[in-house]
Specification:
Layout: H1 2-5, H2 19-43, H3 55-65, H4 74-94, H5 99-116, H6 123-133, H7 136-141, H8 144-165
Length: 178
């Protein structure tokens, strides 16, 4: 019975954020994903390169909407994605014919590595998984996936977060770098 009691939670829901926060979060996410999408669909459309992956949507929630979270800080954003991408590509290369094994190893190992390096960023788990279950286009990138879209995409989101999150006097980003 004690086991199930833990599932009740211990606090009430956090307060609603202000309209001000909603607007700035929306603007940051629009610009961050907009830049990556523009590059993906317009500048890289005729190449085998890509600039946007699904896990960047979750990163946008953190770096534009939850800017004080330890999980949204620059070290976590960039480090979490890059480490997870390296692990995901490696797992795919080691077990290309066992996607169930490569997928579970990639995500679990990415979580462990992010914890060990103090770069925990939940979208990193998706970045590792995408390296395994992604399209032939993603698989063809091999370790280049770590650089583009992952590394350059995370850095672009960071630059936009630094710019947009510090325009209003009431917002400050980052809370810490290292």
């Amino acid at each position: 019975m004690k086991y199930f009691q833990k599932m009740k939670g211990v606090t009430i829901s956090p307060p609603r954020v202000s309209l001000f926060e909603i607007i700035w979060s929306w603007l940051g996410a629009f610009l961050g994903i907009g830049v990556l999408s523009y590059c993906h669909f317009n500048l890289l459309a005729t190449t085998d390169m890509l600039m946007i992956i699904g896990s960047f949507g979750a990163s946008a929630v953190l770096v534009y909407g939850a800017i004080r979270s330890p999980l949204a800080q620059p070290r976590n954003l960039v480090g979490g994605h890059v480490i997870s991408a390296l692990i995901g590509v490696t797992c795919y290369k080691l077990f290309p014919d066992q996607p169930w094994l490569a997928s579970s190893l990639a995500v679990a190992t990415a979580i462990a590595a992010m914890h060990a390096t103090k770069t925990l960023h939940p979208p990193g788990g998706a970045t590792a998984l995408i390296a395994v279950i992604g399209s032939a286009e993603i698989h063809a990138l091999g370790y280049l996936y770590v650089v583009i879209p992952v590394g350059i995409g995370a850095l672009a989101m960071l630059v936009i977060a630094l710019f947009i999150n510090n325009i209003p006097a009431k917002r400050r980003y980052p809370e810490f770098w290292l």
